[in-house]
Amino acid sequence: MDFELTADQVALQEGMRAFCAGRFGIDAVRGLADQDGVERGAWRELAEMGTFALRLPERDGGIDLGWADSVLVFEELGRALVPGPLVWTNLVAGLVDGAASGELVVGGVERDDPSRLVEHPGHLDRLVVLDGEGAWLVDMAEVDVEPIAAALDPLTPVGRYRGELPTGERLVDATGVEALRQQGATLVAATLLGVAEAATDLALAYAKERVQFDKPIGSFQAVKHLLADMFTAAEIARAAVYAAAVTLDDPVVGSVARASSAAKLTAAGAAIANGKTCIQVHGGMGYTWEVDAHLYFKRAYALEPLFGSRESCADRMAELLSPVG
Amino acid sequence: VDLRYTEAEEQFRKELREWLAQALPELPPKPESDDWPARRAYDTGWQRMLFDAGYAGINWPKEYGGRGASLTEQLIYLEETTLAGAPYVGVNFVGLLHAGPTLMAEADEEQKRRHLTPILRGDEVWCQGFSEPGAGSDLASLQCRAVRDGDEYVITGQKIWTSFAQVADFGELLVRTDPDVPKHKGITWLILPMDTPGIETRAINTIVGSSEFSEVFFDEARVPVRQRVGAENDGWRIAMVTFGFERGTAFISDLVETNRMIGDLVMLATRVTRGSATAWDDVALRREVGHLQAEMDALWAMTKRNLAQAERHGVPGPASSVVKVYYSELLQRMTDLAMRILDRASLSRDDLGELASGRFVEERLRSTSFTIAAGTSQIQRNIIAERILGLPKG
Predict the structure, then answer these.
(1) Which helix (H) or strand (E) holds A223?
(2) I need a labelling partner for B237 at 20 to 30 A (CA). Which of A235, A251, A254, B186 fits?
(3) pLDDT digits (tens, 9 = 90+) for B42-66
(4) Minimal Cα–Cα distance from A246 to chain B, Å?
(5) A246 at the B interface (CB within 8 A)?
(6) Of residues B294, B304, B394, nearest to A314 (C-beta)
(7) Is the pTM here over 0.80, yes or no?
(8) B298–A315: do the CB atoms touch at under 8 Å?
(9) Mind giving me the DSSP string for A55-74?
(10) Are A86 and A51 in contact, with CB atoms under 8 Å apart?
(11) 3-class SS at A279?
(12) Can you tell me whether residue B167 is helix, strand or coil?
C-alpha cells in the first residue's frame, strides 16, 4: 500500500500548475468572462497539454494515464478556476471524435434535469445527454437554447433549452452510463478540491498580511481556527478524491460507487465552505467583485450539482449501507 | 499511489484472522468495568496471548520483542482485531502507544531493555503523569517539582487525568527541574515506579460514571536519577515525541471501531420503530447516516495517507492534528445522531430487550472527552494554523 504520489505524478501536477499559472492566471480567467468563459485558442492549448486525452492510449494521441493522474490535473484546473465543460469533454474523449484534440467543445446534461439548464451553451459543439438507457450524443445545432442573462458564476454561463432534447446517437449503454456518472463525479470532485485549496490559499495570504489591532488578523485564534477548518476540509477531501481515483483504476480495492460518492460529497462541502470562509476572512473586501473570493464561492456552487449533489451522494451512501431486503 | 495490499500483507491478514478465530473463544469473561485488578488481569492476559503468538508490537523492532513489521501490517492488525471484536488495548494503552514508542526513541539501552519487552508481554502497565490542575492546554506551565538530592529527585506536587494509575507499575512523568528558565526549558521526563513511597492516587468519577482517571499526589517521593530519560531539562522535547504518536497512530483502532458502529447504527435504526415504520425509513435520518459514512470513508483514506507518510518519513507529521480534530467531532456527530435515532430508547443506558442501544448512549457521553483529551480541538486548530499554515502566534 502506497498513498504517496510518484515522481511522475508530482511532475504532472507541477507541469499543469505551471501551465495554468502562465495561461490561466486569475486576470486571464476573469478576462474570459467577457467571452462567456471559453476561448477556442485556450481550449486548444488545454488539449495540447493532454487535458482531454489523459487516459487515451498513445496510439490514439493520448498519454495513457489513469484516474489517479487525471484527478491531479483536474485539481489544478479547479485551483486556477479554468472555465469550460472540461469534465464532460474529458469524459467522452474516447467516444467522441474531435473531443480529445480540442477541436470540439463537448458539454452534457441529464435528460430528466427539471432545470433544463445547460452550461456554456454558446460554445458547445456537441451535447452528451445521460438517461436511464445510456449516454447519447446530440449536435448542439439541433438544440434550441435561450440564453440566461445572469448566471450564478460569471465564468459558467448557462442557457435553458426549449422543447424535448433530441434522442441522439448512443455512446454507451445503461451500464456504461452509470460508470460515466461515477467517473464524472470523481473528476468534478477533483476540480472542487482545487477550488477548496485555492480559497484556502487566498484567505491564508490575506490573514497574514491584513493588520487590525496592530497585528495580522491571522494571529487571532478566532481567525486561525477558520483557516485550520479550511485546511482540514480540503485535506479530508483530498484523501477521498485520491482514494476514489485509485478505486477507479483498480476496483479490487473498494467500491467505485461508494468512493466516488464520498469524494464528491466531501469535496463539494469543502469547496463551498472554504469559498464562504474566504469571503468572511476578507471582511468587507470579501463582499466586493474586485476580490477573487466570490469566484471560488460561485464556482463551488456551480459545480456542486454535477453528477450528484451532496444530498444525493449521502443518499447513495445510505443505500449502499442498507441491509439487504 | 497504490492501495492494494501486497501478497505478504494479505498473507499476514489471513494468518492473523485464523489465529483470532481460535484465540478469542479462549478468553475469560469480560470483567466489570470498575473492577480494576480484574481489568488489569484481563487486558494483560490478552496482551500475553498476543505476545506468545507473535502479534504484540507489530511495528516494534524484533530486539525489543516486537514483530519488526511495517506500519501497514500494524494497520491490518488494528483492522482485523477490531473487526473480530478482540479486546481493546485497555490498561496497556499508555505502555504500548505512548511510553513504549517514546522510550524506543529517547531512552538509553538499559532502560529500553528493562521496559520494552515487559510492556509487550503484558508484564508491565504504564500510566501518564503529564497534566496538572493548573497545566492543561498550557502543559508546559506544569509545576510538579523535582529537586535533585544526590542520586535522587525529590518530587512534590500533583498530577491529574492519569489513566489507569490504580493498576500501573510505572508512570511517564513530567516534572519541573528548573523553575528559573523559560517554562519549556526546565522540564524533565522521568520513569516513575508507582510503588515509590510518597505517592497517593485518588480516582476521579467521570460523567460516564467510570473511574479510569485519577489524581496523583506526590509528597517528597524519591526517584533515582537513573530513571531519567534523556537529559535534565530536555523533557519537553521528549514529550513532544509522545504527542506525535498519540495523535498520529493511536486513533486508528478508534476509527475502525467507529466505522463499525455506523454499520451497527444502521441495524439499530431498522429496529427502532417510528409509528408504523422504522427510523431507517426516515429519509432525513438515513441521509445523515450516509453523510457520516462518506466523511468516515474520507477520514479513513486520510489515515492511510498519513500512515504512508509516517512509513516514509519515520514519524507522523502535524497532519495528525487534522485527523484528530476531524475524527473527534465526527464521532460526536455520530453519537448525537444515534441518540436521535433511538429517541426515547436513549433514556436507558441498558439495552432495551433485543435492542442493542446501551452502547450508543454510553458512547454519546464518552465521546465528549474526545475533543478534550490528547489536546483539545482548540489546541489542535492552533497547531494546524501555526505549524502547518505558518500563522503567527497570538
Answers:
(1) helix A221-249
(2) A235
(3) 999 999 999 999 999 998 999 999 9
(4) 7
(5) yes
(6) B294
(7) yes
(8) no
(9) TS-GGGT-----HHHHHHHH
(10) yes
(11) helix
(12) helix
CA separation for the pair B303, A58 (Å, rounded): 35
What is the spatial distance between Cα B130 and Cα A179, in angstroms, rounded to a whole number? Answer: 53
Burial class (CB in 10 A: 0-12, 13-18, 19+), A313: buried
B79 flagged as catalytic: no
Residue type, A286: G
Cα(B20)–Cα(A92) distance, integer angstroms: 48
What is the rounded CA–CA span in Å between residue A297 and residue A268?
Answer: 11
Q: Minimal Cα–Cα distance from A236 to chain B, Å?
A: 6
Tell me how far apart the alpha carbons of residues B246 and B98 are, in angstroms, rounded to a whole number.
Answer: 6
DSSP H/E element including A230: helix A221-249
| Distance from C-alpha of B176 to C-alpha of B170, rounded to nearest angstrom | 19
List, in sequence order, every residue forming a beta bridge with B163; answer none if it has no partner. Answer: B213
User: Does the structure show a pLDDT above 80 at A128?
Assistant: yes
Backbone phi, psi, residue B240, to 5°: -65, -35
Q: Which three cell numbers, joined as nine digits, stand for A81?
A: 478556476
Alpha helices (runs of H) in A172-211, residue ranges in sequence order: 174-209
DSSP class of residue B32? P
Based on its alpha-carbon atoms, the radius of gyration of chain A, rounded to whole angstroms, reads: 19
Q: Which helix (H) or strand (E) holds A314?
A: helix A310-321
Q: How confident is the model at residue A37 (pLDDT cuts 50, 70, 90)?
A: confident
- In sequence order, the 6+-apart residues with CB closer than 8 A to the CB of B182 are none
Mutate to test the interface with A, among B72, B376, B391 (most CBs of A within 10 A): B391
Distance from CA of B298 to the nearest CA of A (A): 4
Instruction: Output the pLDDT for position A4.
Output: 81
Residue A238 — φ and ψ, nearest 5°?
-60, -45
Mark out the alpha helices in chain B (DSSP H runs).
7-23, 36-53, 71-83, 93, 100-106, 109-121, 235-248, 252-269, 283-313, 320-342, 358-366, 377-383
CA distances from A220 to A224, B325, B371, B381 (A): 6, 19, 21, 12
Residue A117 main-chain phi, psi, to 5 deg:
-90, 145
Give dist(CA A52, CA A84) in Å, integer.
12
Give the pLDDT of residue B248: 58
Give dist(CA B218, CA A324) in Å, integer.
58
Amino acid, single-letter form, for residue B21: A
Residues in chain A: 325
Interface mutation vs chain B, best among A192, A232, A246, most B CBs within 10 Å: A232
Active-site annotation holder among B106, B124, B132, B246: B246
3-class DSSP assignment, residue A13:
helix
Give burial (CB, 10 Å; 0-12/13-18/19+) of B51: buried
Three-state DSSP at B144 gives: coil
Alpha carbon distance A229, B369 (integer Å): 20
Contact B193, B155 (CB under 8 A): no
Beta-bridge partner residues of A134: A131
Angle (deg, nearest 10), helices B71-83 and B252-269: 30
**Spatial separation of the C-alpha atoms in residues B334 and B266, rounded to whole Å:** 11
| Chain centroid, CA B269 distance in Å | 29
ipTM (interface predicted TM):
0.95
Say which amino acid occupies B171: G
Asked whether B139 and B129 are in contact (CB, 8 A), the reply is: no
